[in-house]
Amino acid sequence: LNSVILMNPKLSAASGALLLALLLLPTASAVTVYPVSSAIVTISGDNGYEWTTTGTDGTFAINNLLAAGNYTLSAFSSGFLEKEINFTINAGGTTNLGDILLGESAAIKGTVTGPSSEPVPALYVLLRRSSDNSTIDATWTDSNGNYEFNKLITTGSYNIWFFTSGSGGNGYMDKHIFGVAAAEGETTSGINAQLE
Fold first, then answer.
1. What is the pLDDT of residues 94-138, one digit of tens each?
2. 9, 69, 174 from 75: Cα distances, Å
3. What is the rounded distance in angstroms from the CA atom of residue 109 to the CA atom of residue 181?
4. In the chain, at which residue ranges do the beta strands (DSSP E only) sit?
5. 59-89 as b/e, with b when 16 or more CB fall inside 10 Å?
6. Which of 2-16, 51-65, 131-145 has the lowest mean pLDDT?
7. Measured between alpha carbons, how far is 12 from 16 in angstroms, rounded to an integer?
8. Do residues 3 and 23 lie in contact, with contact meaning Cβ atoms separated by under 8 Å?
9. Cβ–Cβ contacts within 10 Å for residue 11, how many?
10. Residue 9 exposed, middle or buried by CB count within 10 Å (0-12, 13-18, 19+)
11. What is the pTM assigned to this prediction?
12. How far apart are CA 103 and CA 6, in angstroms?
């Protein structure tokens, strides 16, 4: 199952609009379109910065003036990879960015427990790429000790760090899990940590 986001925006120096729609492609011939609500869209560049989120129908509008210049559009939402597009706004014109494909993120999830298998809530969990140790995302365990990362994760190997210095981890030792494999569009579950 492959997923992409289709964005067919038209931006002008005066205003902008963008349609985000999730396309699920189970086969080469079948395409189903879904709007993506609450996606974060930023536009930054030579002469300004604007951001917004998509509405329930997957669209957004930026009503402030963006002066002519070079800009970068960035869009992402939970469950997806971030996509950046460089473009130029010309004075008095409309800029059509065409279709922008935003792939489905991998997901990694598990449960954190204590030595007696009790759930550990409110524990800080950090996701880092194995190859360069760069931080991808951070979260907290819920009341049942569950955590999940589901955005900005490309296919690859990741390390997960469980930090016990926060309110949820007092009395436990930090823990690390190395080499967790993740694949875009798939969920790696059962990455559990039992703290000591």
1. 676 665 666 789 999 999 999 999 999 999 999 999 999 999 999
2. 12, 19, 34
3. 12
4. 2-7, 10-12, 16-25, 32-35, 40-45, 48-53, 59-62, 69-76, 83-89, 94-96, 100-101, 107-113, 124-129, 135-140, 146-149, 156-163, 175-182, 187-188, 193-194
5. bbebeeebeeeebebebbbebbbebeeebeb
6. 2-16
7. 6
8. yes
9. 22
10. buried
11. 0.72
12. 10
| Lowest mean pLDDT segment, chosen from 23-32, 75-84, 98-107, 185-194 | 23-32
d(CA 54, CA 60): 5
What is the rounded distance in angstroms from the CA atom of residue 111 to the CA atom of residue 114? 10
Contact 139, 112 (CB under 8 A): no
Intra-chain end-to-end CA distance of the chain, in Å: 39
